[in-house]
Amino acid sequence: MKQLLILTILSFVTITNAQEKTTLSLKDAIKYALENKADAKKAQLQIENSEYQIQEVRSRALPQISANGNMTYNPILQLNALPGDFFGAPGTTLLAPLGQKWTSTAGVSLTQALFDQSVFTGLKAAKTTREFYQINNQLTEEQVIERVANNYYQVYVLRQKLALAESNLKTTTKVRDIVKGQFDNGLAKRIDLDRMTVNLSNINTQKQQITNSLQLQENALKFYMGMPMDTPIEIPQTEFEITGAAFSDSPNVSNRSEYLLLKKQEELLVLQKKSVIAGYYPTLSLSASYNYIGQGPQMPLFAKPSDGVYWSDFSTIGMNLRVPIFSGFGTRAKIRQADVELRTIQEDIKDTQLSLDLDYKNAKTQIENSIITLQNQKENMRLADEILKNINNNYQQGLASLTDLLDAENASTEAQNNYTAAVLDYKLAEIKLIKSKGELRTLLNN
């Protein structure tokens, strides 16, 4: 029994330690996501892969060396018609076999490209591809930051609503107990007690709905962070101070990752067109080889001249020139296709510039409206709270009806929920504004 008790205590301690909450600031949440989210990791892997692509293209400009070997058995040698003059029989033709039953060759060959325009263009394209993936990684990180920040603030708002529901539950429970006491003493009607009970039940239901929504939203936040679902998290209140967002009359669109990515795609398409045009250029390469050949009536391996097998070496050095003359207009068609793709991406760039300008204008308008709404809701919340306190005092002194008290409580709850929703709208608008200025990474510095 003692051992069982000890094991139970140890298990409880282990579970308690495992359930310790992780306090997350927005900065911490973003850093965690950039280190653990699959999207961010895959973008990093693409950068790594681009280095290997550069190495692959660079290899085409380096010497290509290979070893080769073969062994051939000729069960029936080809007969060749030879003039009999060589064998002392003029005027006749003799059929004589040439070669040996066994032939074995081993050697080394080298090929070096001296001029190939497609190789030079390919090297430039590979380096540009690396830059493309670096920008894509930056864009991916910004998308991760935006999703984490949005979900982070939504979790906060739901926690605020849950805290408000719990506070209302305590307050309503106290009022219900007062009414129940009055009812027991014959000072209140049954309908008043029933109304308080229904109100309390509604608040309990609302609290449960908020709890469920909060759990779902926390799960979404953990997913976008790449965090295990069973990790408890805590969000500090200091994260949500309302500060005026900085405006800019003309944000630099060229700093946006979306724009930079399209410009880099344009560079790649220009190089792709040049690579196709390179098909019109001649190519020049150097080739060399050195080989050993063994011939005889038996397998040459490990055989000697005494066995009738003879080995000799030979080598070649050559220059290979290829001049394209006519390709059935295939190269021209490829060039025109590349040109259409290039013009298409240029139209995308123009459209993206307009879209990014629109994003900024809309974000600026939205946050201006959010600030006004936030100020109004804050004042409404203050007034509703003041009215509730006055009516509550009047009710306890018998100067206000239960209906007035319930209406004041509902108005106060609605005002607080509206303020909390206004905080969320402001924060989401703030993220859009920061994104429209290309400054999402500044959230890592807050």
Secondary structure elements and pairings:
Blueprint: H1 2-18, E1 22-23, H2 26-36, H3 38-59, E2 64-73, E3 79-83, E4 93-97, E5 102-115, H4 117-184, H5 190-225, E6 233-234, H6 257-277, E7 283-296, E8 310-322, H7 330-396, H8 402-436
Parallel strand pairs: 1-6
Antiparallel strand pairs: 2-5, 3-4, 5-7, 7-8
Write structural notes for this entry.
α3 packs antiparallel against α4 (about 115-185), α4 packs antiparallel against α5 and α4 runs antiparallel to α6 (about 255-275). The chain has a single domain, classed as Outer membrane efflux proteins (OEP). The chain has helices at about 1-20, 25-35, 40-60, 115-185, 190-225, 255-275, 330-395, 400-435, and strands at about 20-25, 65-75, 80-85, 95, 100-115, 235, 285-295, 310-320. About 20% of the residues are buried. The chain is elongated. Helices cover about 60% and strands about 15% of the residues. The longest helix has about 70 residues, at about 115-185. Strands 2-5-7-8 form a four-stranded antiparallel sheet, with no helix packed on it. With about 450 residues, it is an alpha+beta fold. This is Transporter. It is found in: Cell outer membrane. Its main location: membrane. Belongs to the outer membrane factor (OMF) (TC 1.B.17) family.
